[in-house]
User: Fold this.
Amino acid sequence: MAMKLVAAAKVRRAQDSVLATRPFSETLQSVFGGLIERLGSDSLDLPLLTAREVKTATIVLVTGDRGLCGGYNNFMIKKAEKRIVELQDKGIKVEVISIGKKGTTYFNRYRKDILVATFECGQNPNSEDATAISNTLLNRFLSETTDTVEFLYTRFVSLIASTPSARTLLPCSATGIETQEDEIFQLTSKDGEFSVEKTVVPAAEPQDFPSEMIFEQDPSQIINSMLPLYLNGQVLRMIQEAVASELAARMQAMQSASDNAKDLEKNLSQQYNRARQASVTQEILEIVSGAMAVED
Assistant:
């Protein structure tokens, strides 16, 4: 129970971190949407929006640093292995970037030849961690070392359910950024039990840029400079969601362990009481039999 409460406190800390990044994400999405409306998505010719033939794919895998969280880490590693095989069967070279000790340990042991970088964010990821990861991804994509980047992480659904998810991070899609909705999960307690409240946040309204407004820089250059910020925010958000999923899985694992311990205690008590009752009954029978033999 104590470990469950500790995990619950960390989940709340993780959700506070997610909420703290909302204003920046909404403003960025609003400005981006306004610039897209002003320019039109068809007129954009930017490196981060350019799709090319995929010869090399980078898989970014997010796992935890510790165990005691059920099948959380194993599910993600199996999903990564499945995706690696799918890409290799198509003749695509695969490289892996691991975030988290469990994934790093696995690939160092079994797939060291395709592991190109590792990161550790702990259970409190911040913008510095996300910036280091996104800079690595940007450098590899812009230098054409890789042609696409896929992010494998655990999408938080509820305290008892998380969904292993895959998302193509690079190249970006201009038409998907300004219309993307968001979901916020709040950990609450009701009648002594933990629960999660889900709130769907609609996409931010595009900022209005009048047609007579003159930009000091070309709007396409502004968008080009905003895309790394957007990428950084998305990386941070997905890592935070993965951490929240890991902590929720740990809460559930600790609850299951407590329930199993209670069931074990109950079963052992029943077996002990039955054995004691059988022993007492046997002693009574022996006494009665002895008494009857003396009378005869």
